[in-house]
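FIELD: query
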Amino acid sequence: MKVRVMMAGVIGAGVIALGGAALAQTVPPQFVVSGKAAEQIQDFTTINLATAERIAEACERLAAAEGVAITMMVLDNDGNHVYSDRMDGQGYLNIITAEMKARTALMQRAPSKFVMNQVTRNPNVELQRIQLGLFPNSGGLPVVVNKQMIGAIGVGGSAPRVPVWSDEICGHKAMQEVLGASNVAPLIEDLPRPQPPAPASQTPVPRFATQTTPKTNVSNPEWVVGGRGAANVFDGNQISLAAAKRIARVCRDFSASRGGGMSLYIIDNAGEIVHMERMDGQVFNNIRTALLKAQTSLESRVPTSVYTAQGRNNPAGQTRTIAQFEFFTNSGGLPIVVDGQMIGAIGVGGGAGGGGDENCAIEGLKAVFGEHVTLPVYPAASAASGGR
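FIELD: result
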């Protein structure tokens, strides 16, 4: 509701930036949620997983060719996460600003650069824009097909070299590749950013970097961030994007084979999103609970099914677990422990077609890490009574 209220306050500027209002048009079904999944969410105009994934992968490919890393966030029209990747070596600011840019584009119905240019022209308006929840930086773009907005993307993480490269250029080129150039509005003007007057004396700014690549404790270096990426975040034991995406693919197939859907988050040891996806037809509860499960397993270092069982065995104990620790006590969250080393956490919501959220996560972890991964073990009595 908050998102929609803020949209109403700034929608006029977005309409101007996109070239005028238009009645909703028919969107080609390959770009949006359709069929039973659309009926389930009562919306035939929201970006589907396949399109979000293709845009993200196109932008990541462009970034890799430039020798840089980016974070991509894709939102639907309601502001829910649809798909997200953070390339190896991305830190907190790179990751969080991608979402802030996407939300700015969603609320404005216009590129986040529109807000940046407003602030460039008049710095006095920046506080108001921030109070509205807008982020005055380029890299956020609405996803519009046949004059119908179906979502928004945000790209963060790389230093701009306009007009050759920027987060915005990456996202713009990726959308042109996936949606077709005719469905992607031209980039708006880049205004020169005024430089503040230099102080009489410069305060020294420290440099904080290491020339040593952090070492990993896992047997396969492809499972974790390594090289320059690991040096950037001073951590050799963060799950890699490649491993996270493989886990998600197996879980996705597990769910689809049962005729259902799932939402999935994989987060690193700092709690930042490494990979996220929600299959078509997933609603807010499915999406949100997946994140809460991943966060609970990260903080507690145990599967969330531990708290599910404890709650059934001792309902009174849930007061402390839920209210004081703020844990989410439904099964489907697992710490990702490989060769005895925790490298992240996974949370799955949505039921996985009746196969079980935890089972969906387990299938993905087993497929990628094999015997190297630690998995929950259920006593025979609990297993016989449907323990997971």
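FIELD: remark
Residues 49-66 form the longest helix (18 residues).
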